């Protein structure tokens, strides 16, 4: 826990980044012995086919900038992903055989697009949404028989732009119906679902939210010919889950009143049961909902960190699991759970453990308006007060949870305390907490960050003159904004792939992203909300910045384009401020482990230099 930089290639903090990890996994709906994972085993995040019976992983993607998102067909024959050359998330879909091979391009006549692949559970249809200034177009590509690929076909135009992200499209097992989001409600929810007949392009049914509610899209049943899917209607913090058949109009409400906070996460292979996940008041457990009886079977409470869970082979539950050991996470693994008791049965994929770190502690404090804010505290072994890093997650609609976190443990190894703040806008603390930032981006988040610093100093944990800010993406944005709005509080700031000027971001960002972040988060376009764009942009506080600033930015980033950051850096330089910028040759973050280590080493060097200057 020295406050001098450990640059040795085998330093413990670097080994944590190199430790193999599994980001997510999937099993083929109709070939449960075949799975897919994203892992950094090769030194960059790539897709790997997974032989479920043996646990063997085989790399199948070799994209120069890495691949993080992919889909396995329901029959287990092919793996689909977006191939891009420079990490800007603009490309075309390809597929490779499960056993590996040369990528086959699926839409060769299309210009590059920004989209995720969606497959129906039987693997007979690929669908995707292409964003344009005038709206979003739905395309489908027929797959098979005999592993054939049909011509891409336009199906439907939604005149509302910006409908891109995760869980925005679902395709029925029969390949006859698509469900897509109809209209944004706010930055993380939507006003309705449209059921589109893929043969005619007609809207055959809608699930429309009432005033004050929003909807969320679930998954289709994996049973061939079954036209049911689950969906969620949310009013405030109350969720109503239902089974919807848009072909018949049938809607079956699920009575989960006995399991507060539970949500579906997977269908059983026969379409008769739903796997539920509950995390409420610190309790974590699975449950199984049987549709015919409307009954709930609650499984044993779990200890550790769980994510990416689903029904696997022979009715078992497969889940990513991280063991919490002495307050830090070791793992993760993929394990099998008994579907009767929920007890762990056997590991399915086991990787080398992550070097252990210091324990996490959940803390809370009051913000400027009395709102309670939760955060995770990690401290070195020696007693404080410490030089301290306030870490800010991206999103904003995400939350920091306990995980191996090499990016946090790295600071602790070098003598810093770390407080990772789930500021307002974070998920998991109620809808009001999550949505109160909409229309006034940056205000309450920064108030929570300032309150975090005050709490650290009052508790004797932080040296007042040695508190620094860091974050990536939206966390980088908040770092720059807090440095300008409260300049006397910080010793330094380190912002990665950040937003500095919302107006220039709106001009330069991809059309598909304009609505998904600036318009919906700031309440309109720059012409409609000029004052808010000014108030929320860090560049307008450049004159007030006092602390040294390090910016790390991707040259091919579509979400946080280069020009707005170039203007911010030039502005601070013209004002004589202490600012440095490093560029890396990719998009919204790096998927290469050694490059990531290099970026964090740069942050460490900058922070330790700033600390010595103090």
UniProtKB/TrEMBL annotation:
Top-level division of the source organism's lineage: Bacteria
Domain Peptidase S9 prolyl oligopeptidase catalytic, chain residue ranges per copy: 408-612
GO molecular function list: serine-type endopeptidase activity
InterPro entries given in the database record: 6-blade_b-propeller_TolB-like, AB_hydrolase_fold, Pept_S9_AS, Peptidase_S9_cat
Protein keywords: Acetylation, Hydrolase
Example GO biological process: proteolysis
Name of a matching Pfam family: Peptidase_S9
Known role: This enzyme catalyzes the hydrolysis of the N-terminal peptide bond of an N-acetylated peptide to generate an N-acetylated amino acid and a peptide with a free N-terminus. It preferentially cleaves off Ac-Ala, Ac-Met and Ac-Ser. Also, involved in the degradation of oxidized and glycated proteins.
Protein name listed in UniProt: Acyl-peptide hydrolase
Species classification: Bacteria, Bacillati, Chloroflexota, Ktedonobacteria, Ktedonobacterales
């Amino acid at each position: 826990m020295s406050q001098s930089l450990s640059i040795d290639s085998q330093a413990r903090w670097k080994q944590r980044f190199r430790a193999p990890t599994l980001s997510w996994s999937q099993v083929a709906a109709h070939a449960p012995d075949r799975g897919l994972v994203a892992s950094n085993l090769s030194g960059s995040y790539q897709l790997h086919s997974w032989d479920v019976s043996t646990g063997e992983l085989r790399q199948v993607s070799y994209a120069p900038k890495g691949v993080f998102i992919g889909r396995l067909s329901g029959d287990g024959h092919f793996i689909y992903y977006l191939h891009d050359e420079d990490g800007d998330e603009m490309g075309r879909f390809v597929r490779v055989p499960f056993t590996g091979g040369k990528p086959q391009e699926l839409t060769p006549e299309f210009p590059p697009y920004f989209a995720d692949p969606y497959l129906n559970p039987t693997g007979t249809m690929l669908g995707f949404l292409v964003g344009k200034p005038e709206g979003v177009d739905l395309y489908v590509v027929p797959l098979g028989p005999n592993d054939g690929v049909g011509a891409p076909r336009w199906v439907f135009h939604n005149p509302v732009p910006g409908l891109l992200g995760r869980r925005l499209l679902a395709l029925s097992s029969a390949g006859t119906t698509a469900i897509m989001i109809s209209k944004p409600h706010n930055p993380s929810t939507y006003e309705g679902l449209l059921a589109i007949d893929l043969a005619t392009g007609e809207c055959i049914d809608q699930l429309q939210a009432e005033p004050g509610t929003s909807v969320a899209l679930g998954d289709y049943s994996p049973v061939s010919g079954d036209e049911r899917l689950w969906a969620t209607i949310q009013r405030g913090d109350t969720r109503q889950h239902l089974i919807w058949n848009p072909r018949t109009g049938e809607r079956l409400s699920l009575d989960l009143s006995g399991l507060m906070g539970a949500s579906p996460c997977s269908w059983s292979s026969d379409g008769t049961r739903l796997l539920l996940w509950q995390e409420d008041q610190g309790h974590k457990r699975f449950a199984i909902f049987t549709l015919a009886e409307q009954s709930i079977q609650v499984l044993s409470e779990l200890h550790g960190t769980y994510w990416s869970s689903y029904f696997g082979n022979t009715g078992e539950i497969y889940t990513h699991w991280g063991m919490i050991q002495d307050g830090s996470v070791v793992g993760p693994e993929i394990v099998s759970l008994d579907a009767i008791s929920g007890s762990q049965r056997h590991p399915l994929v086991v990787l080398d453990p992550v070097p252990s770190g210091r324990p996490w502690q959940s803390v809370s404090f009051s913000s400027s308006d009395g709102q309670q804010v939760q955060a995770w505290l990690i401290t070195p072994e020696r007693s404080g007060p410490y030089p301290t890093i306030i870490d800010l997650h991206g999103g904003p609609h995400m939350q920091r949870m306990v995980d191996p976190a090499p990016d946090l443990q790295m600071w602790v190894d070098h003598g810093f305390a770390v407080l990772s703040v789930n500021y307002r806008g974070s998920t998991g603390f109620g809808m009001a907490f999550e949505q109160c930032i909409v229309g006034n981006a940056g205000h309450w988040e920064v108030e929570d960050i300032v309150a975090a610093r005050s709490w650290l100093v009052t508790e004797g944990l932080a040296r007042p003159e040695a508190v620094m800010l860091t974050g990536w993406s939206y966390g980088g944005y908040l770092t720059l904004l807090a440095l300008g709005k409260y300049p006397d509080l910080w010793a330094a700031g380190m912002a990665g792939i950040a937003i500095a000027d919302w107006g220039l971001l709106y001009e330069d960002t991809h059309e598909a992203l304009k609505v998904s972040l600036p318009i919906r988060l700031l309440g309109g376009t720059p012409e409609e909300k000029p004052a808010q764009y000014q108030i929320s942009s860090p560049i307008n506080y450049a004159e007030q910045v006092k602390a040294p600033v390090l910016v790390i930015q991707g040259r091919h980033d579509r979400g946080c384009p280069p020009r707005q950051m170039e203007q911010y850096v030039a502005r601070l330089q013209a004002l004589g401020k202490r600012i440095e910028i490093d560029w890396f040759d990719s998009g919204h973050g790096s998927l290469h482990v050694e490059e990531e280590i290099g970026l964090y080493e740069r942050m460490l060097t900058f922070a330790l230099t700033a600390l010595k200057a103090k």
